[in-house]
Amino acid sequence: MKNIRLAGIVLMTILLTITAACGQQQTTSLKVAEVTRSIFYAPQYVALEKGFFEEEGLEIELNTTWGGDKTMTALLSDGSDIALVGSETSIYVHARGANDPAINFAQLTQTDGTFLVAREKVEDFEWEDLNDSTFLGQRKGGMPQMVGEFVLKQHDINPQEDLELIQNVDFANIPNAFASGTGDYVQLFEPTASIFEKEGVGHIVASFGEESGHVPYTVFMTKESFINQNEEAIHKFTRAIYKAQQWVQEHSAMETAKVIQPYFEDSELDLIATVVDRYKSQGSFATDPVLDEEEWNNLKAIMEEAGELPEDVDHGTLVNTNIAEEVINE
User: Fold this and answer.
1) In the predicted model, what is the mean pLDDT of residues 195-210?
2) What pTM value is reported for the model?
3) What is the residue range of 153's domain?
């Protein structure tokens, strides 16, 4: 009798172990390379902090690779599985004849993220005020520079003739150059623009994002082969991002700021909230992950205007909307 009872306990233990194992979701690890660390990417950090990736059975290893070239190198060399970077990089890679192209599958931001900052406080700013000024712009060939020049041309300003355009300063050194006295105007990302305004170094007078319209400014992309071999994981990743996009849309800037503050420990909470509110109010955060054809064509128009479009690439060649659309329709 004792042996029968013992056997029953052992059997029950085995059954409970099997049941628990079956109930556990298998975890998939994904390496993500972000082009920079920015409040502009708030929904990504919300997805991490709110556990949306974990709910999908994903373990995310996030690395900041500081620059489009380094980010794409990490992706193409298998140093990362997914890259968060501007869509223009996928066009550059495709034009070089990549056998395994980078495919855009989930959009995170849908406007330019830079602001025009003036050294002096300008009452009733007009874009024509930039004529005959010194403008400290962004690196040539990057989206900030291309959007910046596109907006200037929209306001009948020739960047090469109507002002002194400075483009030989490295991205990381642009804020210091302006703070040290270079330029009457500068094109800056947040939170630097708001920090400069708070410290009296400069004054935000216009938004390049508002002026340029919707573009696939920052997008999650991966190699075509990776999607083919890991479609379920990409689907889960996109679902987590969509949850975060909806969460940011439905919650206040301060609520979002509190969630993402661990990623910006050197920034005050109020400043983070100010930046989130500025981006949210101008529609910079995409509310769903679909990169549509109109946005893609707007990107190409900006690149072509800047003389940086190596070839005309159709939307369907480098963009996969199927996964994002399936996630939204679930």
Assistant:
1) 96
2) 0.89
3) 114-212
